[in-house]
Amino acid sequence: MSNAAVTAATSSRATAADKSALARLGEAFVGRLVILIPYLWLVFFFLVPFVIVFKISLSQTAIAIPPYTPVLGFGDGLAGFFAQLNELSIDNYTWLTQDALYVNAYVTSVIVAAISTVLTLLVGYPIAYGMARAPAMLRPTLLMLVILPFWTSFLIRVYAWIGILKPEGLLNQLLLATGVVSQPLIILNTYTAIFIGIVYSYLPFMVLPLYSSLEKMDYSLIEAAKDLGCPPTSAFWKITFPLSLPGVIAGCLLVFIPAVGEFVIPDLLGGSQTLMIGKTLWNEFFANRDWPVSSAVAVILLLLLIVPIMLFQRAQARAQEQDK
Amino acid sequence: MKSLGSIRRDFAPWNDPNAKPYIQFDKVTKKFGDFTAVNNLSLTIFEREFFALLGASGCGKSTLLRMLAGFEEPTAGRILLDGQDLRGIPPYRRPVNMMFQSYALFPHMTVENNIAFGLKQDGMPKPEIAARVGEMLKLVKLEQFAKRKPHQLSGGQRQRVALARSVAKRPKVLLLDEPLGALDKKLREETQFELMDLQQSLGLTFVVVTHDQEEAMTMADRIAIIDKGEVMQVATPAEVYEAPGSRFVAGFVGNVNMFEGKIAHGEAGAASIDAGNGITIRTEHAGDAATGAAVAFAIRPEKIRISSTRPAGAVNAIEGEVYDIAYLGDMTVYHVRLDDGQVVRASTMNAARITEDPLSWNDRAWVSFRPDAGVVLTR
């Protein structure tokens, strides 16, 4: 984002060179304003809520409204405010490390999300590849088909999978009728059902970035590889796949991040046997009404996701810098 | 008329009836749906030849190259390379390499790895690959750029990498698709000569596709002029220019003045052409046209003399009016409107710094040419 800001600023400076000072000032102001909007958005809708959640995570649960203490305020003056700050503690975080339930839930969530991401990639890559190689006339239609499921409520689509996967559901009826199995398969309320749900729901997030990186790839590169003696499969691994890596990474992040915290799919398809952090968070918040602990769970989840992404982005930026 | 040979005097296998053809297009047709890109085309290319396929865009020349590389299969007909029918052989098993118009350098690999790509595919031992890559880098003078990525190079350097990559495997035939199309004029001229030197030193057969006639004329031993998927003429650059086989070829290669008319009187090696409006052209080149045949008389601008008075003893001289003069530095181009309205283009080399016979707009002028200066075209 800062890169874009710099280019925007330089280009506006260059074009404004021969304009009046007033017009230049106005343009600079508009330029700043445009950059300001996303920052303000992030501050109000990400940073402020995060600070609130973080503060709650340091509080203690209480039978009150709101259900935690202390509630920060200036009712007792500045001294009272600082006294309230002193009551904050990291007890909830220590608690999370002591109870195996939370650690297990985190680890399971990351593993489930990772497996789902790989599965989504395996399903999504051929789709994106096929779309990118389809005749140019057909591509907008195919793109539309990928986006089409979003027009139906996410919840309804996940519910629909219950009807397909349950023991007497459509899938089992089909398999029994065709004689593939003699006993109905137990898929619902297992991790398999969660994988199916996540792969199905998040597929467009994988396909779209993959498609955009595959589509802009010059097909003559593949021809050049073949021309130099490379059979098609080998050309795919040596040329197509490495060049689509930015799309692969973007798609994987777009699937992995929301999948780790996913609540609806494990709840509806995974049943009570499966343990994932999104469900744990929901239980802590709504069943136990323990706002501080659930806030701590949320903060840890965020760190768990953000830290690797930031490290990755820094590594990528450094690699790009070296390339120049 | 004297024979018009190739520039390499000792190299003319196409005149040798015993020479073995190296690449043969045998009645090749290629259709894309309803569109016929190549129509029943036959062509023979010899070993170590620098062969140019010249034509306007969409004439089918690139399709010919792509069929040779194996990216397209002919709808009908055969393509033979060194006696072997290429049908069904995939591009990665053909002993030909191609230099792509877009260069198609692998953006995620260094210059070195781009050049080594084909060698690694062949399973060449590592030390040999390193040696060959080093040799190729030296050949294209890019030694110090070995570790760079393509996007860190200039257009000319990229072109050299593409060239090095395509010759690294020592293919039997190198195919070049508009190899100089993306370079600016100066660089293009330099590179033309470098390509010729490279072809000579490596002893490879080059087939180049180009829409630039100057490029084809400069580099090629022979040129095939392609139009609408058919070969119009295959000949040395000098032949194509001085003895074009048809009105199309005469008009396509270089500038030409064309007089349509009828053979009024023909005899061995000479004819007079009645070009209408009282213009009679006497020529020593009548081809095989019979008396009364409708022909075109084609003459290049540099073979026409322009003067303010009728030159004494001129066989062919026509009067007109100067209506445009373009001074190009090395030469001046005059457009003379004849009394029947036809415009004749005449160019004069500016051998002296000050012209002795200055003509100006709207001056009456005479255009004259020798009887052996033009050609008679029947097609």
Automatic annotation (TrEMBL), chain A:
Keywords carried by this UniProt record? Cell membrane, Membrane, Transmembrane, Transmembrane helix, Transport
Task: Give the record's membrane topology.
Answer: Multi-pass membrane protein
Name any Gene Ontology BP term. transmembrane transport
Q: Where found in the cell?
A: Cell membrane
Q: Where is the ABC transmembrane type-1 domain?
A: 106-312
Q: Which GO cellular component terms, listed alphabetically, does the Swiss-Prot or TrEMBL entry include?
A: plasma membrane
Enumerate the InterPro entries for this protein.
MetI-like, MetI-like_sf
Q: Which parts pass through the membrane?
A: 32-53, 65-85, 105-129, 141-165, 185-211, 243-265, 291-312
Q: Which family does it belong to?
A: Belongs to the binding-protein-dependent transport system permease family. CysTW subfamily.
Can you say what this protein is called?
Putrescine transport system permease protein
The organism's lineage?
A: Bacteria, Pseudomonadati, Pseudomonadota, Alphaproteobacteria, Hyphomicrobiales
UniProtKB/TrEMBL annotation, chain B:
E.C. no? 7.6.2.11
Q: Which reaction does it catalyse?
A: ATP + H2O + polyamine-[polyamine-binding protein]Side 1 = ADP + phosphate + polyamineSide 2 + [polyamine-binding protein]Side 1
Q: Where is the ABC transporter domain?
A: 23-253
Q: Which GO terms describe its biological process?
A: putrescine transport
Uppermost EC category: translocase
SMART domains, alphabetized: AAA
Q: Briefly state the protein's biological role.
A: Part of the ABC transporter complex PotABCD involved in spermidine/putrescine import. Responsible for energy coupling to the transport system.
In terms of PANTHER family, this protein maps to: PUTRESCINE TRANSPORT ATP-BINDING PROTEIN POTG, SPERMIDINE/PUTRESCINE IMPORT ATP-BINDING PROTEIN POTA
> What is the protein name stated in its UniProt record?
Spermidine/putrescine import ATP-binding protein PotA
Protein source organism: Mesorhizobium muleiense
